[in-house]
Amino acid sequence: MSEQVLERAPAPADLPGFFGAHEPLPREDVDPAIWPFIDRWVATHRGGRERLIPLLHAIQEQLGYLPFPVQEYVAEKLGLSPIQVYGVVSFYHFFTTTPRGRYQLKVCMGTACFVRHAQSIVETLNDVLGIGVGEVTEDRMFSLEQVRCIGACGLAPAMMVNDEVHGNLTRNDVRRLVRRLRAKERKAAAKAAGEADGGTDEQ
Ligand code: FES
Q: What distance in Å separates the CA atoms of residue 165 and residue 172, rounded to the nearest whole number?
């Protein structure tokens, strides 16, 4: 656990909203179901500022991420400043301000992985998915992140797919993995469509 952190911290330029560098995401772009969800949560969980982290977790579970208008709303509901909420969101790596995919790909950029060419894993994913780090595919299937040591240094280079660790990765492994996950999704979609049509299964 003595890895060095090679990942860069979020830069203010990446953070639209509170600092005025960019236009905040309009409220209309956020799923409107989230506002009553927050109201209900706050009404049913008594307490003060200590509710912030549990509430952020609940929202992220519901929405998949914590967009800035939501952070502002949470601040208002809990009597905090937006900057206080943002400070917490940006401090903990498990919070995200960008939507995540159904498959969250987290490539380890800790020292052991870095020296075993983790960057080539990131580049392969950039190429195969057509997205950069911190982005999500249009179909919301995949999102890509770089993270610190995931505790699998002996398997470097390693990455996580949701909660699953994949190690000793090569570029081909990564391509195969993405193909497999896409096939799995197609199969699930076909099955769901078949069920919706009254059980007509076309494969
Ligand atoms: S550096 Fe430890 S798992 Fe990558």
A: 17
